[in-house]
Amino acid sequence: MATMQSSIVDQVRTVLTNLKAFITNDVTFSHTSFFPGRFCYDIVREELVIGFLKHVFQVALDLSEGSHDKSSPPAALILILSRLFLDFEANTVNQFVSQVNEQFQIDPAQVQTTAAALCAESKMVAQRMLNHYVKVQGLQISQMLRKSVETRDWLNTIEPRNVRAVMKRVVEDVTFIDSQVGMLYEEGIRKAHSSDSSKRTFQSYSGPRKHQSTARSFTPSTAYDTSLMSNIQKLFSERIEIFSSVEFSKVSVLTGIIKISLKTFLECVRLRTFGRYGLQQIQVDTQYLNLYLWRFVIDEKIVHVMLDEIVGSTVHRCLEPVLMEAS
């Protein structure tokens, strides 16, 4: 990344050095009253240097607003560009502006576009690129989860013996993304986690199993109580923003990707009908995800809440809601 920035700065410096030939003392027209201002301020600074930066910004924005099809740029390129423009905001933009101001004797008080405005625009582009990267990666994992839910017969599935392969693939992909983002961004700040995060089991939906045994004698009340308890639980659960803007840190990026993925998982579950073993398979899958995903996010509660909601929604979509006992 540093080599790329250095190369860009050197090329701009070379171009500016070549353009100085037009304002040397031995060039007659450089001493006219109108040429220096028009050439130095408008052509070199605004149209060439500032114009170059704005063109690059616009190209990057076009990439971040494209569709998520096969013609889209690779996610790794989007990530690299986000880091590049963040570094532009910190150093490169000021280097460009200071070079052109010094070499062409430009008064910063008389310019049209300030360095601060360019830095702000560069940071905005970096933010857009990083948000786009999160969406692209989140949607890729979401596609796997969606296909795994939609192509399975959850009513007639067999008793779960193991976690499904797609869940292992999700964890593998998240781990790879974690290492990829870690090459360019700092770790970031995460909330302290509890000592039993990886051992946590989903106990909050054991109620429906107990209701099931008395369903014949008190079915209306059972359905009402289950729905009421679910709604009360949602009132007190923390609302999670799924597509919120991410921070420039590894843990924030991974949190955004995982939220998108689990939200898709949840929405797919809500559209299916489950049998007893289908519910238990979802229980096994979510427990497996809980064992690994909590360590990638800012706050482990995000994973816990979303996985709880997936299990809870599966219970409500299940014809025989009998959960597995915690082992």
Automatic annotation (TrEMBL):
One of its GO terms (biological process) is lysosomal transport. The keyword Protein transport applies. Keywords: Golgi apparatus, Lipid transport, Protein transport, Transport. It is found in: Golgi apparatus, trans-Golgi network. It comes from the Eukaryota. GO terms for cellular component: cytosol; EARP complex; GARP complex; membrane. InterPro entries: Vps51. Residues 195-216 are annotated as: Disordered. Component of the Golgi-associated retrograde protein (GARP) complex. Acts as component of the GARP complex that is involved in retrograde transport from early and late endosomes to the trans-Golgi network (TGN). Belongs to the VPS51 family. This is Vacuolar protein sorting-associated protein 51 homolog. The lineage of its organism: Eukaryota, Metazoa, Echinodermata, Eleutherozoa, Echinozoa.
